[in-house]
Amino acid sequence: MPGRPNEPSPTGWNTSPACSSFTRSWSTSTRASGRTASSSVDKWESGRLLLRHYTPADAESYFTMWRENAEHLREFIPDAVARLGSVAEMVKHIAWMDAGRAAGRLFIFGGWSKDGGYVGEVYMGTRSPDFSEFELGYFLVRDAVGQGFATEAAECLVQVAFQELKVARLWARIAADNAASIAVAMRCGFQLVARHAGGKVKKDGSVVDLLVYSLTPPTASGQRPYR
Fold it and tell me: With helix as H, strand as E and coil as C, how does 30-54 read?
């Protein structure tokens, strides 16, 4: 995300509720951990936001959003989305997202302010065979930058991951020149665990370091083991 907010000092995950309400469903996917059903949060509300999964009814506005923010979100547009050429193709893409959620591997939430305006997206996905670790990501549309929406949405998804989906660890991989995304991760309690020199190739061909952040849920004593 663009913008350069001040970076706060890391304090660990804030266990006070970030989300005021949840709506849940159940999937029947079999996980490698042995669980045969998993709770899935369909939507939630925070102080200023409603976050929910996309539906086919969102296809036109979602397609338009990517087009209108193409330059602003250039570094964050997934290749699969960049190739979409019509609303009909976006409907299929939303079905693909639904399949990932049903399998317990991909959770993508659109964010709307309480007045109905779209602000951005927060998501997490995994390739972990036991579904124990997920990678977190987020972005804001151009008109929503600088209002704290990314932190509010990310804090909610952290709560969902640890309290509802029982994830053991969250990761965030961020380009070293993306000060805004770094600040959001730190506000959520993530700790820097690795720096890969030249690990991020940007869309214009330039190369920057890739920072890897990690976050785990609190221990029984309330202290966080950062590893």
Answer: CCCCCCCCEEEEEEEECCCEEEECC
